[in-house]
Amino acid sequence: MGKRFWVGGYSPDGGGTSLGIRAIEISRGLLTDLGLAHAADSPSWLATHPKLPVLYAALEHRGEIAAYRIMDKDKLESLGKPVAAGPMVCHLAVAGAGTVLIASCYGDGRVLAYPINADGSLAKPTIAPASTDPFASPGHHPRASRAHQGTALRSGKIVTTDLGHDSLRMWDLVGGELRLHRQVALRKGDGPRHLVEHPSGLIYVVTEHSAQVIALAVNAAGEWQEVSRDSLGDGILAGEHFPAEISLDRHTNKLYVGVRGARAISVLELKGGRPVVLGAVPCAGEWPRHHLQVGNSLLVANQLSNTIEVLGLGPEDGLPLKHLNSLALDSPTCIVAQMPS
């Protein structure tokens, strides 16, 4: 038996051709399309519950979140009606040991916390305090807040990125609500998109606008500070290429970053915690919006070339140089394992 995944994508309301959430399987490096699991409008981001057979989807251009009961390897059933979120809800993360769903909205910067009921359905959310632009100044036009990702850290805190305000916000999850602990400003114009936490406690943030990876650590005073800032390769240029997903290798010694516009996956080795570029490797498609490591392979969702690609990782350097398989799939934007790891 192979490993199975749910795939979200953009439908016509988001400029794509996807019909909804699909199920796929990989076995011995070969991908199989298991069919349409449930029709949906631009389910651009997906998240599974860690304990319940429930899948959540951000219906980005409807500004709603849908919950589905997992019926089989290739079938989903609606778990109630979609619930309201905010404009361009683009990311979901289950936190609090499965008790809360965190939603990030690119359209207005809104971050919401939905209590999760016993059956996996969503209760009425609380809205976190709005972001304050750390670079705001009198006489200048205010910049829009653009929430893009929420992540549960090992400490139990939640961190959210704000691509528009060039900052991260750390939150305490108290009674299912988000309470602001600290805001961490990066540099103006960075555009932090997604991040990943290393077992060492370091956080690696990929920036969409400056096209870099920033490492953050907690100093002796308990404050988060930038400890390194590195490019994604000589050919990756800010303003021309747009980093998307960042992930940590299963051996925790490398980072993989999909770079839209460059048709590439950048690979960075962690040396003393600092990312050092090993290379930017072709992703066998166009607009690598998301990727996921599966054993010694990398699955890449190439949104604009309408494929999921399987790239074999080198046993020594981890570079995804071997093209193993390709599966035609409309406008894929997110891949999530059916069984949480």
Automatic annotation (TrEMBL):
Which InterPro entries has this protein been placed in? Cycloisomerase_2 (IPR050282), Lactonase_7-beta_prop (IPR019405), WD40/YVTN_repeat-like_dom_sf (IPR015943)
What PANTHER family does this protein map onto?
6-PHOSPHOGLUCONOLACTONASE (PTHR30344:SF1), 6-PHOSPHOGLUCONOLACTONASE-RELATED (PTHR30344)
Q: What is the lineage of its organism?
A: Bacteria, Bacillati, Actinomycetota, Actinomycetes, Micrococcales
Q: Which Pfam families match?
A: Lactonase
Q: Name the family.
A: Belongs to the cycloisomerase 2 family.
Organism (species) = Paeniglutamicibacter sulfureus
**Protein name, entry field:** 6-phosphogluconolactonase (Cycloisomerase 2 family)
